[in-house]
Amino acid sequence: MYLTITLSILFFVQCTSKHQVTAASLVGTATGKGLKDYYKDYFPIGVAVSMASLHGPDSALIVEEFNSVTPENDMKMGPIHPSENVYNWKNADAIVDFAVSRHIRIRGHNLCWHNQEAGWMFKGPNGEPATKELLLQRLKDHIFAVAGRYKGKIYAWDVVNEAVDDSDDTTQVYRKSNWYKICNGPDFIDSAFKYAHEADPDAKLYYNDYNSEHPVKREKIFKLLQKLIAGHAPIDGVGMQAHWKLNDPSPDELRKALDEVTSLGLKVQFTEMDITIRLPKPNPASGTMPAATAVPDSGYTPLAEAKQIAQYKMAFDIFRKYKRFITGVTFWNVSDRSSWLDGRGGGLMGGAAAGANTPRVVRKAYPLLFDENRQRKKAYWAVVNF
Ligand code: XIL
């Protein structure tokens, strides 16, 4: 069975290569059709952007292929609000102007997170931990300032990002972040939604998280959503980040996650899609990591390519079936030339952590639909030929 699937994928790869070369050479010129056009009867197709992507050679591709953008980093709490009463609007404004002037919609990312946080918010006037009241007041001020500034321009916000615990312990529903600890529970999540709705009543409000298809985490997210709905939080949907692997999630896991969320009357956006070709981390229990040089970067092999094509095709086949519930699919970065994944993990997993015993071996993730030369990959055609 597996052999048959792999063979038919390899056959598909062979058969589409001519098509791909022809069309790829047209990227950036007027092909007349980009991802957004193939999916115009389904949902907007977006991409995460930085200042570099707006001004460099990515910008033509962004305009041709996508009809939604998400600032990759420039609206996060720390970058945009580095200290009390100090806001860095420059990059966020530039992204908003870029998109508005080209009639591209904008998703805001994000209003409350434990990473890339505004660390000053957690401290009281004398350096002691902030009280719950002070922290929530700051959260409110922050959300009013940011969501208020882009009112009418940002159509959807990731209001709270990654607040659910990752462990297999089913009793630990919430991540023990500074937000959770200082607020002594998850109420900050309800509050963030309430503030965001007050700041911009027309914006669609999402809870955003990763591994939302893994059964244990899926059930924890479900509990959070039930709690939010029971408390009348103004939530419109769930962002499933979709940082996926060649065999993860399975089609059943993906459908189950969609069925569960939509059974609550919520919409879904896939907010940060990429499918890495990297293998899972070596098991730390097996002792020290093998020397990175033992596993050199294999590059984008035909087998990895075939599996990635299959995974992308599987995902978009399901997305189209659920189009009633899906209000957007966004890719996290533009092309394989530069993915956030390439800088993550050490030694075997990525390029970042070099040391005396772990020489740097860059193992790129090749996770997107455009290659290192910004050309459409075969996975692109698998997604648009339906
Ligand atoms: C990532 C960015 O892509 C990186 O540039 C940055 O260094 C770290 O954050 N989940 C999220 C995103 O919600 O905000 C993260 O973006 C990727 C994981």
Q: Could you characterize the architecture of this molecule?
A:
With 386 residues, the protein is of the alpha/beta class. The protein has one domain: Glycosidases (TIM Barrel, Alpha-Beta Barrel), CATH 3.20.20. The protein contains 13 helices and nine strands. It has an eight-stranded parallel beta barrel, surrounded by five helices. Strand 7, helix 11 and strand 8 form a beta-alpha-beta unit. Helix 1 packs across helix 12, helix 7 runs parallel beside helix 9 and helix 10 packs parallel to helix 11. The longest helix has 23 residues.
Topology of this protein?
Layout: H1 2-24, H2 35-38, E1 45-49, H3 51-55, H4 58-65, E2 68-71, H5 77-80, H6 90-101, E3 105-112, H7 132-149, E4 154-161, H8 178-183, H9 187-199, E5 204-209, H10 215-230, E6 237-240, E7 243-244, H11 251-263, E8 267-275, H12 302-321, E9 326-331, H13 378-384
Bound molecules: (3S,4R)-3-hydroxy-2-oxopiperidin-4-yl beta-D-xylopyranoside (XIL).
(3S,4R)-3-hydroxy-2-oxopiperidin-4-yl beta-D-xylopyranoside (XIL) is lined by residues 72-73, 161, 241, 272, 340.
Whole-number tally of structural domains: 1
Major sheet strand order: 1-2-3-4-5-6-8-9
CATH structural fold name: TIM Barrel
Q: Strand portion, in percent?
A: 5-15%
The CATH H-level homologous superfamily? Glycosidases
Ranges where pLDDT stays below 50 over 5 or more residues in a row are 1-30, 287-294, 346-356
CATH architecture: Alpha-Beta Barrel
Structural class: alpha/beta
Report the principal-axis shape. Answer: globular
Overall helicity: 25-40%
Q: Which molecules other than protein and nucleic acid are bound?
A: (3S,4R)-3-hydroxy-2-oxopiperidin-4-yl beta-D-xylopyranoside
Oligomer: single chain
Mean pLDDT equals: 88
Biggest pleated sheet: 8 strands, parallel, barrel
Q: What is the β-strand count?
A: 9
Question: Radius of gyration over alpha carbons?
Answer: 21 Å
Measure the end-to-end span: 23 Å
